[in-house]
Task: structure prediction
Amino acid sequence: MSQLTVLLIEDNPRDVRLTQRAFQQADLPHDLRVVRDGDEALAYLNREGEYQDPSSSPRPNVILLDLNLPRMGGLEVLCQVKQDPRFKQLPIIVLTTSGRPIDVRQAYENGANAYLLKPVEFARFTEVLGQLGKFWLETVELPQET
Amino acid sequence: MSQDHLTWQMTTTQFYSQLYAGVWQHLEAWLGSAATLELIVLSADHLRESYPFLNRLVWDAEGLETASFEPAITDGELTHVQAGCERFLQELSYLVEACIGSVVAQRLQAVTAQRRHALDPTRHAPLSPTENDAATTLPELSATALATVHSMAQQAVALYRQLQTRPLERDRTPTVSEVMGDGASASSASAERLSSTPADLARSESFYHDLFDLSPDGLIVTTTDGDILQANYQCAEILDFETPADMIGHKASEFLVHPEQRDFFLERISQHRRIEGVSRELRTHLGRTIIIIYSSRLIDYEGRRCLLTVLRDVTERARLRQEMEDFAYSASHDLQAPLRTFEGYARWLLEDYGEALDEVGRQLCEEIIDDALHMKKLLDGLLEYSRIGRQHTKAVAVDVAQVLDRVQHDLQIEIGDSEAQIVAPDTLPTVYYPEVRLTQIFGNLLSNALKFIEPDRPPEIVIGCEELSRHYRFTVQDNGIGIAPAHYSRIFEIFKRLHTREDYPGTGAGLTIVKKIVESHGGQIGVESEPGKGSVFWFTIPKTEEPP
Result:
């Protein structure tokens, strides 16, 4: 895998902007795709509507999921994606501000691959995303796309 | 007539020595000579200040030695011989009532009156036939029963002597009147029963009955197998029953949402005979899930070993607690999101547009970053504060020395930078406490001791531990800037600070959190200080043999 394709599910545009910048600074070959809520995320994965073209909507290697989303909550998105045999193997990393024990537990119980707290400090945020990217891009073996 | 005349001629001493002989005869028959002698000696002793001659009368196992009467009286006492002799009879009667009971005391009075009349009919009226019967009719007792009664009377008097040294408990003087009344059957009465009259028992029974009914908590008595024997209305209400009677036939364990918890219960009860303050989820017979806390104790109930359990419905409290926790988390989540933007964007400005800004512009960006990070710490402090006491952290056996080692390891940079000396006792106890909380306490106190220091005076910190009867008292003493007594309480209030953040960084939440931890675990905290010289922070931890 030469490039990490990331699907970021995040509704806060400022967080999106900071995440994009953090990925840029993390010195990592990446392709960051952004959707703003659960419906858009499912449409993207199912290649529906504006996401029909595989070349402009590539299948992600990793999903970054915020828990606090409008309408369909992050946990529900997690459940739906993980229950779908086509996407079961997709690593989903919860990226959120809530360290609430029940949120952490429920995320793992529903198949989250990791649970990360967004640091307030931008330098630390860049560091975390850099580590995360390197881990999924370079350290682990992922199933080949068929 | 001649007899009357004769009695008229009797001297006071003759009259009382004969009256006393009659009293002795009866008392001795009822209570045995040992107890009777004791009662007489006690009576005389009580009156030794007012009527010393009573103490000089000679009594033995046969009764009063009549010949000792006249010589016992000194010239000065001649005028109050009669008064003294009457007081003696009153005192004896009082003591008999106090030790043995009112039945025997009344008989004694009847016998005395009967005897007075026989000795001096002109001055003392005869008894009515019923009174006469009461005085003369004695229950027929076998020799064994009589021996038992005598021995119990003796014990009763001995007990009275003991209790006399504790005047407040004088009302609890034992009686054996039931023994006299019921004959042999009552001689098996337990010593405990001896200490209360039937009226006392009835009073205490109705007292406990009221207590049972009035309790705002559920009370329930079960067999050790869990069969419900008795419950109060509050308990019925908690478990959705109409009346306590509806609960009979149910087993306590059938309400457990997690039935396997019964094993824990039985194990604890058999080891410790009691359980205190345990929280459980129950399902009522209507299927409603509730949360209770309960305490149980092994008791004697109508001759069997049973369990008395007190339970309180805390469902609402648990719900509010959960709501509070949810609120604290979401507040902290939502309040943190903008901080990330402040910090991230300000840094972005500095990195990409720093050259377009002048020195002031760059300084302002730095300050935005600084405050955003400070606000993050304030939120963390607030969140932490709201979690203590609500979030259940399990108490375990913690070696205080190990906690201190780890805290010092965590603070090694501050210790190194300030060239601090930290001294701890060679031996420190093991306490039952949530480990993370104890680490927080020492972490906060030590980091304060390392932070609030005079320039050019390396910190010297002494940790102490004192074993009190029910607590351990730990101290953290420093040689820092100290605190004026007027500010002792302020430093424990949340976000209250005595110095600017520029002089001494921090949020002002640390000591508030420490205080809440200490107090929510049954301890106390305080400070003594001399400004400019140093401070001693102290806190206590309850001593427990096992996890609470």
Observations:
- Chain B touches chain A at residues 325-326, 329-330, 332-333, 336-337, 339-341, 343-345, 347-348, 372-373, 376 (CB under 8 Å).
- The CA atoms of residues 174 and 459 of chain B lie 67 Å apart.
